Amino acid sequence: ADEVVLTGRSNVGKSTLMRELTGHSFETGGKPGVTRSPNSYDWASDDFMITDLPGFGFMSGVPEEVREEIKTEVVQYIERHADDILVAILVVDGKSVIDIIDRHSGEGEIPHDVEMFHFLQELDIPTVVAVNKMDKVDDRDERLNDLCDRLGIYPPWKQWQETIAPITAKKGSIEPLNDAVRHHLEAQKRDDL
Ligand code: GDP
Predict the structure, then answer these.
(1) Ligand 1 — pocket residues by CB below 6 A?
(2) How many domains are contained in the chain?
(3) Which long-range contacts link 184-188 to residues 24+ away (Cβ below 8 Å)?
């Protein structure tokens, strides 16, 4: 079945966004596992599901090997479902993403978000980076341009509105994400004709 997947580190606001997209609340319970939901969200008339994948990366109180397992699970899920995934939404925290990427850009180290972005591109899955918590970001353009730079796409970010979607999920301000996702869905519909 066709699906849109939501992925990202833990605490970036994935559940908040999921609620915003679907109008439901979901039991996540903090346990690794895949939350699936039937479609009832803003992009009506398209017949697909939104799949919320477990958050990866640092979680306080969760041991390293469990975190690794979760990431492997997410990667395997995406590989298995690549043909059915219409769009992947990689959610990042706009306030902290650059610092986190830079902190993990040492020798032989690839930050999770950068790795995930390239992984999705390698699988040819149209990807939208939902840059959440923009209400906490002052230097908006600079931050988004820096993010393009770290992801290996050329700034300015405004040239990438189908890829970079600044949002504030908590306040329901997600129009750039809806626009970007709709763009990819419509492009695929045209290809299917
Ligand atoms: P998840 O772990 O990715 O599912 O993250 P949650 O949805 O549980 O959100 C983590 C924290 O970020 C919570 O305290 C949310 O209230 C907060 N949060 C989510 N979206 C936003 C946002 O747009 N702006 C701000 N300032 N906080 C947010």
Answers:
(1) 10-16, 55, 132-133, 135-136, 168-170
(2) 1
(3) 184/86, 184/87, 184/126, 184/128, 185/43, 185/46, 185/86, 185/87, 187/126, 188/86, 188/126
- Nearest atom in ligand 1 to 12's CA: 3
Which pLDDT tens digit goes with each residue over 77-100?
Answer: 999 999 999 999 999 999 999 999
> Which DSSP letter does residue 193 get?
-
Q: Which domain holds residue 17?
A: 3-192
Average the pLDDT over each of 46-60, 128-142, 171-185 and give the range with the smallest value. 46-60
Question: Mutual orientation of helices 64-81 and 112-122 as an angle, nearest 10°?
Answer: 20
How far away, in angstroms, is 113 Cα from ligand 1 center?
17
Q: Which residues contact 151 (CB under 8 A, 6 or more apart)?
A: 113, 114, 117, 129
Mode of pairing for the β-strands spanning 35-37 and 3-8: unpaired
Place of tokens 């040239």: 159
Side chain identity at residue 127, one-letter code: T
Report the distance separating Cα 24 and Cα 124, nearest Å.
30
The CATH number linked to 127 is: 3.40.50.300
Q: What is the ipTM of this complex?
A: 0.99
